[in-house]
Write a structure and sequence with these properties.
Elements (H helix, E strand, L loop, with lengths): L14 E5 L2 E2 L2 E2 L3 E5 L8 E5 L2 E7 L5 E6 L9 E2 L5 E3 L2 E7 L6 E6 L3 E9 L5 E4 L5 E5 L8 E8 L9 E8 L4 E11 L10 E6 L6 E3 L2 E3 L1 E3 L4 E3 L4 E8 L2 E6 L20 E8 L4 E11 L16
Amino acid sequence: MTEIFFAVPSGLTPGTVSVRVRAGSAISEPFGFVVSSTLPASLSAVRQGDRVILAWPARGGLFEVESAPGLDPPVTWTIESNSQLPTGELTAMTVTVAGGARFFRLRSGGSVSRVRGAMVTAAEGGTLATAEGTTNLTVPPRVLAQDTRIEVTELAHSPHPELPFSTDIVMSPAGLKFQQPATLQVQLPEGITDPRLVEVYSISPANELVRSGVEQSRLRRLTNVVFESATRTLRVPVEHFYVFSVLSRRLQEEIVFDIPGQYLKKGDLIYTLTSDAVLGHRGWIPGHCGMFLGTRDPSSKVNDGAS
């Protein structure tokens, strides 16, 4: 079987295009394929009285529309559940606005599994769980300053498909703090039983800014997590809301080493591992990429793979 690949110019007029294939003196019968235009993701809004008509490209992927009454933090976004109506190249939705300002945003709906927001009372607390039951957040009583609408978003696809398991979990309203930690619980899939290979990271402006090689990052690995191998249950204390990344690694050794400067040329890109005191060796998270600037002489140790 022979495979033929075509490079289609981006400016080609949409429609049916005919192609012939020539091999030596032989030429095939014409066959056609359809060229269609794909509009970039964008959201338009037209207000008509107390209604707002929203529209976005139909071919740009699966989207959800979210709205918020304001943009002052903490911002609570709510999914608009009205019907989405295809209208040619656009998808439209009509939303009723009672009064005041309303802000809308378009969010990819094909890549998230969402816990739809729920009001959690300060006096009683509460638990939010995904439809699959694999992730839940438990808020104890009397740890919130006031009744709060809480929302949890978890990626449905793996951000690191090369790993046995990985997911990102976003909690809102962003920056929400608890007087005592809430508990995030994640059920890991079968086959993951070694706690040494389960890692949890948080990304938050409240995290200390750490220098990693030539970069600075607020990515922090959490060490106060509990993983029960028998039930494959991971429990993470949550002091405030931002982004949490959960992943499981394979039991393997890194085979990448820093290359001495004498073997590099100026302008070479270098991928450098980061020391991980918890793992006991160096790893890719956060890791960083730099450019080699050159050494003073072949025997110098300056900039040996670290620039």
